[in-house]
Amino acid sequence: MLTARNVTKNYSNLQVLKGVDISVSKGEIVAIVGSSGAGKSTLLHILGTLDSPTNGEIFINNVQTSGLTGTRLADFRNRHIGFIFQFHHLLPEFTALENVCIPGYIAGTRKSAVKERAAFLLDTLGLKDRLEHRPKELSGGEQQRVAVARALINNPDVIMADEPTGNLDSHNARELHQLFLQLRDQFEQTFIIVTHNEELATLSDRQLVMKDGKIVS
Ligand code: ADP
Ligand code: ADP
Description:
The structure is a single chain. The protein has 217 residues and is of the alpha/beta class. It has one domain: 3-Layer(aba) Sandwich (Rossmann fold). The chain contains seven helices and ten strands. It has a six-stranded mixed beta sheet, with helices on both faces. A four-stranded antiparallel beta sheet has the order 2-1-4-5, covered by helices on one side. α3 (96-106) crosses α4, α3 runs parallel beside α5 and α5 packs parallel to α6. The chain is globular and about 50 Å long. The protein starts with a strand and ends with a strand. The model has no long low-confidence stretch (mean pLDDT 97). Residues 11, 14, 16, 34, 36-42 line the site of one adenosine-5'-diphosphate. One of its GO terms (molecular function) is ATP hydrolysis activity. This is Lipoprotein-releasing system ATP-binding protein. It comes from Chitinophaga niabensis. InterPro entries: AAA+_ATPase (IPR003593), ABC_transporter-like_ATP-bd (IPR003439), ABC_transporter-like_CS (IPR017871), ABC_transpr_LolD-like (IPR015854), MacB-like_ATP-bd (IPR017911), P-loop_NTPase (IPR027417).
């Protein structure tokens, strides 16, 4: 579903990625682990088309994303990739339902269909009674689950998560882990997750260990 070949990234004369090869299958949860500064976030951002590689190729469902630019890239990213970050980045003035709908509206999907799917996803994630709440009226765990629903709204090929449990207590972190497993089993959802959380890494289907710009195991 996703293939990266010989991806490198240079910042001026610092080589941060030194030739990374990855292939990820549909429905797989892949954790990227390793010490701080190893290049994990840089790799995730490049796989997610938020940043471009210096060299190398990336294919997501046979589309060479490293060949896309401008509005075509933005459109591809919005439709095909979901993002979850350490902080939820929900828009404070919108309700949970509206926050989840926004990427669907941007994709140009019929409004009624977007709303119906958003409500279905929030229900699936245990937030049936929170549709009209604004982010500040939700607990931290609930806010992050709204962010997960938002990441899922356009039925993305892959969800890229950068330290998704980094701002959650252990109880909410564990609930989010279970949710990822549920989404994998229920929808064959693919995840690539950068995490320092050992439990989340262990629950994943595969762990890629990065060291000094390379995958070492
Ligand atoms: P990790 O996520 O594993 O902690 P990062 O991908 O954040 O690692 O960073 C890898 C290396 O790249 C670090 O040495 C970091 O300082 C450097 N780096 C990251 N982003 C930039 C940037 N925009 N400009 C220069 N150096 C960067
Ligand atoms: P936590 O124990 O995770 O910190 P909170 O005490 O923040 O949770 O919230 C408990 C419940 O109360 C949550 O389900 C949340 O939806 C609800 N809630 C919190 N603040 C508000 C508010 N201002 N308006 C409506 N509901 C709220």
